[in-house]
Structures are given as C-alpha cells and as structure tokens.
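new request in #modeling-help
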Amino acid sequence: MDTYVILRRSGWKDGAELGEAAARSTAEGERMPDDIAWIRSYVLEERDGRVGTVCIYQASSPEAIRRHAGEAVLPVDEIVKVVDTVFVRPDPVPTTA
Amino acid sequence: MTIVSGRADTGERLLERDDVLAALSGAYAEARAGTGRLVLVSGESGVGKTSVVRAFLAGVSRSSRVLAGGCDPLFTPRPLGPFADLASGAGERLRELLLRDSTPSEVFEEVREELSSGSNVLVLEDLHWADEASLDVIRLLGRRIEGIPALVLATYRDDELERTHPLRVVLGELGAFAGAESVRIEPLSAEAVARLAEGYDLDPYELYRLTSGNPFYVREVLDAGGEAIPETVRSAVLARTARLSDEAVSVAESVSVAPPNLDAWTLGRVCGDAADSLDECISGGVLVSTDGGLAFRHELARLAVEESLSPTRRLELHRRVLTALEDPPLGTPDLARLAHHADAAGDADAVLRYAPAAAERALSVGAFREAAAQFARALRFAGDQPPAERASFLERRSRACYLADDQVEAIEVMGEAIECWKDAGAGLSQARALAELNWYLNCRGLHTLSQEAIAEASELVADHPKSREAASVYSTQANMRRLEGDLEGCIRLARAAAEIAEQTGDTRTAAEALVTLGVAELSRDKHIGREILERTIADCRASGEVTEAARALNYLGIIGVFRYDHELANTHLPAALEHCNAHNLDLWRINALAFTARSQLDQGRWAEAAESARLLLEDPRESPWPHHEALVVLALVRGRRGDPGAREALREAREVGVSPEEHYAIVALAAAEAELAWLEGNPQEIDRVTAPVLASAVSRGASDEATRLTYWRQLAALETSADDHFSGPYAAGAAGDWREDAARWELRACPYETALALSQTGDVEALMQALEISRELGARPLAARIGRGLRELGANGVPRGPRPSTRENPARLTARELEVLTLVSDGLRNAEIADRLVVSRRTVDHHVSAILRKLDARTRGEAVAAATELGVLEDR
C-alpha cells in the first residue's frame, strides 16, 4: 500500500454534514481493508463558508481511493502520492473551540 | 488425506479450533437457509485441516447429506479424481457422466443438480493436488455457489503453493466471489502443546520448539512414547512403524507407494500372506480403512514411509502394484494410476500403453496440464520409438501445453514435432503441425516466424490440395491474409478451407475457417459479417466447438472496439466473457477483458475501464498482450484524471515485453506515452517517443498507425510528415483540422477525444463545451488546460481553479443536470426549463430521467428532497 494525500475541497455544508460523511467513509473503508486505510484528515475552513478536507490515506492504488469515495459518496478533487514523510512533531491535540 | 465420509467423531479433543469451527457453522447455517457458501480451509501440512472438517461434520444435522472427494498426490493426478470419489455417494447420473469423459461444465451442472436437492455438504480435500479439470469445476461452483443451497468445504495446503501453482489462479478468482470465504488454520500455541503433553514425560517447551505447534507432529511424538523427542516428523513417524512386525511393515510399505489408497484385493495380490498383518497396521495407528481401501492416516506419514524405501524395494513394489491394478476383479483400471506405477516401475512398454491413453482421457475432460504431463511421461520412454510415433506424442503434447496456457513450451514442442514428422517423411502431417504452430506464433506476436511456417506448410500440401491437412493450411492462410488486410484473399481461402474441411469431416477446422470468414466480412460490412458470425456461433455451440465460438464472440467485440462501434462492443464483449467463463477458456477471456477495458476507456467510462484493467492484472496467467493493454489503459485513466501512477503503469507495460512485431501494442504504448507528455506540456518527450515508432509505421506502410502518432506530433506543433495521406480515426486531427476531428469523435461517442479536439479549435464556444465535457468526465488536467486557454482568449466568466461543480458531486450529477435540477426545484415544468436553457424539450426530458435515476427517485418531488438531503442543491 502507498500513502496518498486526497483533497476534498468545499465538500460539505458544515461540520455535521462532514461528520456523516466520516461515518460513511469509515464503514466503506472497513469493507475494503486490503485496499484502503484512512490515516487522518485535516478539516479545512473554506472561503465559501463550507468545509473541506485534506485526507491522508494508505491505498493499494488511486483507483481504490476513487472506488472508496464513490461508495461512501465523498468528493475527490485531487489525489497525490506521498513519497516520503518529514516528521517534525506529532499533530497538536485538537482543542474544542 | 482421505476423509471418512459420514460423521465419525474421532473423540480427540481439538484445541484452539473454536473460531474456525464457528466460521464453518456460520457458513453452514447460511447454506441451510438457502444461500450457498464455499469455504476454503487452508493451513500447512499436518496442521489439522481434516480433523477440523471431521469435527465440524460430526455436528451437522442428520438431515444433511455429506459428499466427499479428495485429490491424490500422484505426480500427475487423475482428471476429475475428487468428483469420481464423491460420485459413489451421489446419484446415478453423476457416475455415468464421469464414466464417459464429460467436460468440467457438464460435471459442474450435474454436481449443482445433485447439491440443489436440499441441505448438502460437499467436502473437497487437498486441492493443492487437484487436476486442472477439477479446478475448473470448483471455479464454476465458486461463481454460482450463492444460488445453490449447499455448503462446499475445500481444503488445501498453503505452504507448498509456488507462484505459478494452478490453484493460485483459482484462489485469486474465488476470493472475488461473494459466496466464497477463506479460513486459515494456524499451528497450535505453546500453551496448547503443553496441554496435549500433560501426562507425558516430555519437556513441553522443547516439544513446542521442535514441532512449531504442528498438531500432526506433536501427536506422532506423543504416540511414539519415547523419552526423547525425534528431530523430524519423519523420524517420529518411523518410530511408530518401527514397533510393527516385518509383515506389517511390508503392508505399510505397499500402501505407501500407492496413493491415495489400496483396496484389500490389490493389497493381497501385492503382499501375499503378509496382508494378514493388516489389522496390526490399523491397531498400531499406521493405516486406516477408508471407502476406497487402506490408506495412511496422514500424507506426512505416507511420505515418511515411502521415502524410507530403498530404490530396489520401491521399484519392486511399484511393479507388483502395477501388475495387480492392471487386472482388477471388477471395473476398469484408472489410467492415470497405471501410468504412475508404470513410470515408477521403469516399465517402458507399460508407460507407452497407459500414459498416452491417460493423456487423451485428461484432454477430453479439459485437464490440459495433466494431459501435457502424461505425454511428457510417454516421451521420456519413447526414445526407441519410430519418429512418427514420437512426432504424434510431441504434437499432442504441444496442443495440451497451448491449451494449458503454456504457449512458450507449446511452440518449442511443436517445433520438435515438425522435425520428427520430417524425419518420418510424413509431409502432410508436417504441414498440419506447421499450420497449428502458426496460430501459436501469432498468439505471441511472432509474425515473421508464423509466415515462414505457413509458407513451408503451403508447399507441403501443394500436391494434395483436397486433403484434410490442406484444409487446415488454407484456414491458417486465410487468417494470415486477414491480418495483412487482404480481405478478398482471406474470404476466398476461408471458403475453400471450410468446404474441404466439411468434406473430410474435420468440424473444428470448418468452424475455424467460417469464423475467419465472418470476421473478414465483418470488417467490410457489419450486417453481413454479424449474421455469418452469429450463425457460426450457434453452430459451434451446438457442435461443442466452444473455442471457435469464443473466438467469434471475441472478434465481434474487437471489431466493435476498432471501429468505435460501442453497440457492437457492448453487446459482444460481455457475451464473450460469459461464454469464456462458462467454458473456462482463459486465454480468450483475458483477451476479451483487455478489449473491454479499452472500449470502456474510449466511451469515457473510466471507473469501469480501471476495474476491468485491475481484474486482468490480477490474473496470473502468462499472456503478454492483454497485460500490456490493461496497463496502457490504466495509465491513460490515471493520466486523464490527473491521478498518480500513470508513468509507473506505462513502465510496467514496457516491462511486460510484447514482441516487437506486435505493432498494435507498440503503437498504443507510444501513443499513450505521447498523451501523458502532452498533458505534462512536454513536446520534446512527444518527439522522442513518437519518432522511432512513426518511422517504423511509415516504412511498413501502416498508414492508420502513422496517423495516430502524427496526431500527437500535430498537438505538440512538431514536424509532421510532408505528404498528408492520413487515414483512420485520427486523420482529421493529424492534419490539424480540429473542428472536423471533434465532429468525428462526437459521432463515435468518444467524449474525451471530442473535448480534446474542441479544445484545439481556438473558439471560445467550443472551448466552453470542451470544458463542460472534461469536467463531467473528471478530466482535471485537460480541464485545467482548457481553462488557461479560455483565459488567454480573454473569455469572461471562466472560473479560476476548482469549484464545487468541477468535482463529482455526491449523486454524480453533471453540471447540466444540476442546472436542470435547480430549475425543477424552483417548480418549473420541462417545457419551461427547455425555454429557459434554450434546448429542446426532449433534451430536458432526458436530463430529468437521468436525475431521477441517479437520485433513485420516483418523482420530481422525491428527487428535490433527495438532492437537498445530499447537499447537492444549495440552500437558497
């Protein structure tokens, strides 16, 4: 499996809608464990007032990412393959606003 | 290993097998409820697969019938062996079917019938030894299992499956079927081994370390009862036999050379009076009595005893078993077993008597790999035979290799056969073999060699123009003419071949020639060609010429792909796949799959194209062109979507190594490389990849291919050929007439190519249309290029960068459909929408029904509600 960054810009109206999408994503991901592993996502505050994500996945191929997105009804703007990781420090612990 | 059919509880306690047993019970419950299941039980040798199956069977309902069959560790297994085993417990029809050399699909149908009668459990053991025909039956079972109210349990050893093992192909395929699942049996833990060793005077840790938790090994050590732990399974087994009397050892040794078992009558003939010591072997735990006769409790035990025999003793035993089996008190002897013992006894006459007969039997039931092995066996003993005899074995072995998907070996062996026929002075037979070789060579793209072969064959039949052999030569020549583009010549030769073949009663060659004739007609006139081929397919199906039917179905699809006739491709490629699946014609199946991927790409159905390519690439069959094509299609899907991995796929395609004479593949690869380079904006790269292939196409006079490469050079503003005799689908683009090119691609319903051509017209309206098409396709790089082009042209209202409509929205509505849906939600009727969008009423009707379908809605109101819920419609 390779690591990929997936951009899903302005995919959702708000956090609640994104939450539902995340549940679908997890459920579909569990159905294809050999092809997809969701590592983490960063939720983006978009200029149009919506929310988007940058997702880090491991996947067997870009097609597997698109198949998963199709099944879970998630948008895909761009898939980029990660060739290396420069690890500086762990992600900050999310603070509830 | 043989399972005792019925439900014998061994009374042994099974440790750490609860999970596996629960999985089997779950599958059994589903099967009883009507949804059949196939469970593959794997594990290393001796891990206890049979014990688990036996423990499970002890718990199945009394109303369930258990059918069991096993595969044998013969060097070359009995074709359909496991089904012959289970036939004894099954209906009369299955037994009859197996007696008269039936094909795997016939056997499957009967097994299905047998299993449909109610709650049944079918156990197939030791699939790692299965012959090819049995594996074909199992594949069909896996494919259809959900519709059969039965549980199929299949066991195999997973520690001995090298990469090219035929079972691997089947396992890969079965994994994709919803009704199939796998469970693996792991060796025992140290705790479990310690529990088993309770009460014995042995160090449990040492026992675990030496046996690695292998239950068979542990049991052998414990039963040996010594104080030291034997260092190998073999010494543990031999420690047990060492306690038997000499007579009992002689019985065990006799059984060890005759897997899977030896019946009591044969044993008596082999051992004489010593056979009286049989009970000692059974009470000593060395042998068990099974349905088929006496057998070792475990294959590991049999091997240990067999390997301990001296070469002379082994030879002696095989001779005696052979003599006894040749003359059974009832029934007919099994040819594969006879060939096995004849070989091991070094009896050349017997090998030459039985191996070719066993091979023919294997061929007739579709066990091609076994047939090839039996002919190889015969050939090893045929050194003193006259050349004609050897030529016949070689020719038949070559055909079996070809059918078993070993084309390289088939070509090699057919070459030897041809030499032998030559030595024998049999010119006509030599011609027939050359004609056959021609097909194999074409399969690998070795066209120069295939032309030489057919030229030689043609001379050999010149004096016998009405012979059976001449028909096969003409049929081959007809196909060659078609490949060269000489349709008139092809049709003339194919007619002659079909006529002579029919007169000489050669139905296979007659069918072959008629299919070639139909394909040639199809290249000229769709309706005439289609009619001929469809009639030929029906005839082939009726007469059992399933391979020629597959070839005809493939070509109907292929011509559809070449001509961008999607209707033809979409009708016949799925039909070809279904036919090939039903008859396990794997080479034609992956060929059809490669063309399916290409056709889906052309139609803009990229997700499906990538899926077809993936399926093909997972197939371990060694056949270069289809793999090459799948990788090229995958690269183009990735490149056109802007996804990573396009270059890697092309690199892999290059590594597949198709023949340099496989021009279609070489041009497709160069065109794909040029396309990626164009998307990256790299004209030098386009020059580099197209120039040599273009030069070769020009020198061969292959105008369509030259045009296809020139198209990319035109796009990169590179030098193109001075004379502009462009031809084929890319002609208008290659000449730089992009409006005409766009119109032609639109007519062919190839959306990506249409958008690409429109994007080159320099016309704002055309570019806007191109932008819409490329966004609907998800062609991000092309859309980005068009967006830049539009901005350069000073067009207003072109969005910068991505916005929601450029992505696939949740319901995958197109931009236009979203627009229509918004108007629907505003309460407009179709006629009003048509006015608003300045399109025809019919176009709106079409959009609305697409929207309803995509949102799975019955009414417009439901569609609006569903769209709002999905967030497709903006809250306004």
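bot summary: The longest helix of chain B spans residues 507-524.
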